[in-house]
Amino acid sequence: MEMQEIHHSAELVELISRIGFLPLLYSGIRGFSAEEMVDDDCRYVLLPDGGWDWPLWKWKGEVITDGGHVYGKFFAGKAGFISREWWPDFCNYRRSKHPAPAEGSIEEAILLTLAEHGSLITRELRALCGFDGPKMRGKFDSYVTRLQMETRIVTENFVYPTDRHGRAYGWGWSLLTTPEQLYGRDACQCSRAPKESLERICQQLQQVCPEATKLQLLRLVK
Question: What's the pTM?
């Protein structure tokens, strides 16, 4: 597929709609990430006052809320976007490889907590699940990443702290929820067999990345 340089969030939304899948940062396949496709002016830059600017990073919330695309750590534990058109197939395949969490498991407790509260930023979810002790953050984050890879948790938006002037700053916090709560149960359903969904996804990615090997594509999908 022909790619174009991205200059603003609307172009990023359009690209994801067209190709279906797009990692945020380097994916292991050269050129296949939003980071590599944006114009130079939209990439990370340090400012003279010690701050930073990164338009691509700031677009993530707009792509989710305005563009309607799904965002989470879906590609080998790294973040990226999936269009709503391709989400049912992606869910279908991933969930066939990873059944629902066992009763009484930590993963189930995380999902039940999200179901009760609707959406929570990571630190709130971590505290409610009892992971507020020393050295618990990394352990908890690994559970959340695993649930995102299993398509059971997605990012609803990003929340930024504000200074005394009401200006947002920092990297922001992911506002987590389940895809069923955000998009509805039907959006996560697919009538195809999981193997057929996998084949369709791989065919689509091969068109998007014709120079990538089958192994490279499978590493992203599996």
Answer: 0.94
* pLDDT, tens only, 6-48: 999 999 999 999 999 999 999 999 999 999 999 988 988 888 8
What phi and psi, each to the nearest 5 degrees, are found at residue 174? Answer: -70, 130
Residues 159, 156: Cα–Cα separation, whole Å? 10
199 CB burial (10 A radius; 0-12, 13-18, 19+): middle
Q: Which residues contact 111 (CB under 8 A, 6 or more apart)?
A: 101, 147, 152, 153, 178
